[in-house]
Amino acid sequence: MQTQTKLKQTVSQVRRDILRMVHKVNSGHPGGSLGCTEFLVSLYNEIMELKEGFDMDGINEDVFFLSNGHISPVFYSVLAHRGYFPVEELNTFRLINSRLQGHPTTHEGLPGIRMASGSLGQGLSVAIGTAQTKKLNNDRHLVFALLGDGELQEGQNWEAIMYASGKKVDNLIATIDLNEKQIDGPTDEVMPMGDLSSKFIAFGWDVLTVEKGNNLTEIIDTLKKAKSMTGKGKPICILLKTEMGNGVDFMMNTHAWHGKAPNDEQLEKALAQNRETLGDY
Amino acid sequence: MKEYINQGSKDTRSGFGDGLTELGRINPNVVALCADLIGSLKMNQFIKENPERFFQVGIAEANMIGIAAGLTVGGKIPFTGTFANFSTGRVYDQIRQSVAYSDKNVKICASHAGVTLGEDGATHQILEDIGLMKMLPGMTVINTCDYNQTKAATIAIAEFEGPVYLRFGRPSVANFTAVDQKFEVGKGILLQEGKDVTIVATGHLVWEALEAAKTLHEQGISAEVIDIHTIKPLDEAIILKSVAKTKCIVSAEEHNYLGGLGESIAGILALNHPTPQEFVATKDTFGESGTPAQLMEKYGLNKDAVVAAVKKVMERK
Hints:
- Chain A is α/β, with parallel strands linked by helices.
- Chain A is built from 10 helices and 7 strands.
- A 5-stranded parallel beta sheet of chain A has the order 1-2-3-7-6, sandwiched between helices. In chain A, strands 4-5 form a two-stranded antiparallel sheet.
- In chain A, α9 (216-229) links the parallel β6 (206-210) and β7.
- By secondary structure, chain B is an alpha/beta fold.
- Chain B is 39% helix and 20% strand.
- Chain B has helices at 12-26, 38-41, 44-49, 61-71, 84-87, 92-100, 129-134, 147-158, 205-218, 236-246, 261-272, 292-298, 303-315; strands spanning 10-11, 30-34, 54-56, 77-83, 107-111, 140-143, 164-167, 172-173, 189-192, 197-201, 223-227, 230-232, 249-256, 277-282.
- Chain B has 13 helices and 14 strands.
- Chains A and B meet through α5 and α6 of A and α4 and α6 of B.
């Protein structure tokens, strides 16, 4: 548990890490990473019950799966600051021989990662499997998953959404990063998905909405509420209305920074908006 | 010449079902998943005895592979069951990312492989699955030849750490390997010693190869027959040792010659011991409706095809 001040400090430092990581290798996905910073900082520091150290089985602790693997910068930074691996290792993001691949993988043995993701639409199914194993193991801990909203265009998600309610997977909290943007533009233009809340409800899920998905208090309150709703026969969906590029004024309100790195000048401007709090790696 | 007796024809998928049932009794971590084909995969008894360890996912194979990958987090050993076509081609990316690249201990168990699925036709008869699976880094690929071997393999792979593709079939075929066999992943089996030609077969073609060896023996040709149940990792030593003696080889499989066992053999021969080789396999084609026997005949996958290939390859020595 961290104080609100500490959480805010972590958020600011994670944003700096994201920007510096993608700038250094001139590649990566800052937009969605910045948008999900408050969520992942809250989840890992305030919500999830975690064991010290890391093992692949994740028995007797909460487990998280990132389905939209392209927001690896925020995931790596949050994991490092939570103590899974040295913060200095963020310096190796996307470099040859690194454990911090462009998209997360178990293959290089990076602590904190339990599945590879990058090819979209697969994480929810995996999360369901682990939730089922927790039930078989009589492990009361929960499984969390984060999915992009554009990612819901992949059909496998709807197989998984149907399964989770049909089979009463009620130890699962799946959050949708609802930033309404994808690579080619606004989701409503690329492939309109309609009313996602109604769709999840129609598929038999309980749905909570976070109107301000970059507000720590609202995120934490909603996640706590979601936890209190588990074990009642239904999977839980959180629609997290985030702002892609949040925290950097010129990266917000556009999909342009989905997969583009800032240049030197842009980095300087962006870092000036996010204070160094815990020390740059 | 060693004689092999058909102990009574059975389908290899029943070997899978019975192996799974036994696993249910001896290994509490084994769980099973199926995409609406319980009867076809012979999973009924496992489900009856272990309802809490079975997951019916409906007609949603991509989700099944993902759930299987997730079940391993926490120590379960998932066995997925559906037809070979829907176990591989339909879910290639899910297997690639969530299972193979994620190093998940999932056993992908695939029935109705090849043309011997029969009357349902080419939409269901995959002849490319061995190639798809063997190209995945870290994937073990097994194609068993009869009921007893399939049962033994099913039991053995639960103890084998890592992703496995286990391929078997629909029709009733000769059951001739030992009931009490110990299945060793990656070890070829020398079934028949010979000196004139090596026949390396997998799956349903192993029995056809043994039958071919009998016919060849009557014609004065001494054929060595090797059962390669594990296509990857391939038992290179048993093949190289044999061709050093026979100087020619026939590979036999119910699969496209592109991507199959024969292609893997050609690769190790090219690197180690260039040897004339003939391929008993489908020739880059889809299958069609028909009885298993008719299809094996039409697509050149039976005893006669093996005999003809042997004659041809021996002329190339």
